[in-house]
Amino acid sequence: MCSRDFLRAKVEGRKLSMVTCYDYTFARLLSRSAIEGILVGDSAAMVMHGCPSTLSASVELMRVHTEAVARGAGDKFIVADMPFLSFRKGPAEALDSARILMIAGAHAVKLEGVDGHEDVIQRMVQSGIPVMGHLGLQPQSIHAYGGFRVQGRSNDSARDIVRQATALEALGAFAIVLECVPANLAQEITNTLRIPTIGIGAGAGCDGQILVLQDLLGLNMEFRPKFARPFLDGARCVLDTLARFDEAVKAGTFPAGEESYS
Ligand code: KIV
Questions:
Q1: Which residues are known to be catalytic?
Q2: Can you list the positions of beta strands (E) in 104-247?
Q3: Cα 122 to the chain's mean position, in Å?
Q4: How far apart are CA 38 and CA 17, in angstroms?
Q5: What percent of the chain has pLDDT over 90?
Q6: Which domains does the chain have, with CATH numbers?
Q7: Whole-prediction pTM value?
Q8: CA of 20 to the centre of ligand 1 (A)
Q9: Closest Cα partner for 134 from 67, 73, 204, 87?
Q10: pLDDT for 117-162, tens place per residue?
Q11: Ligand 1 atom nearest residue 43's Cα
Q12: Cys staple from 94: which of 87, 103, 174, 218, with CB 3.0 to 4.6 Å?
């Protein structure tokens, strides 16, 4: 898989599936799946480190997680998130940060938004770095929105997201994540663009879907956003398994003879 295969999938009408991943163990499992792409998301700050938002993710944090994923991901296509402000200080600093993530094992980078960093996107694309866009709810801007809110509900806001999507395609992005926008808006953008849209909370009309791995495995008992279907009751599985281990230890049935050295 490479960035051009995303375009090919759209031309051929094949849906794309992506998940986030932040560590080696899950990357090994994903390497055995049919999922097309892995996003080392800046959601690592929240999911792996318990931060309240993605603003705490740094280039160094993203480098460490990208390296771990790349060690386990086999030939899966890996996109790494450019963290908060890392692409807003001009092309030179942005390219330096992207270089760190690409050397860590990413095959592409994802940047939220477009306005004000068109030059950065263009320079990256011209330098051979595939760029994925991210529109709609941009978690790095939650303080401007006043929280994690659905975007594009008003006509003006919807028009603006369509404008940004068109601009991203013109700048050379190979795909765009659409997060938390009404399904009809995502469908319109998907129909308008040549490049694929990857939805999260953006309805079924996108060219592909992405979920946070821990959400689709049902591992987070406190946070169940409307759009994140848990395909497994992972939290229950883990808790039941821990209870079985605890009982076995306390009953003296673990370890058994065959689990001990003579
Ligand atoms: O960081 C992340 O997990 C993301 C997804 C929500 C697309 O950007």
A1: 179
A2: 108-112, 131-136, 175-179, 197-200, 208-211
A3: 21
A4: 9
A5: 97
A6: 3-216 (3.20.20.60)
A7: 0.97
A8: 7
A9: 87
A10: 999 999 999 999 999 999 999 999 999 998 899 999 999 999 999 9
A11: 1
A12: 87
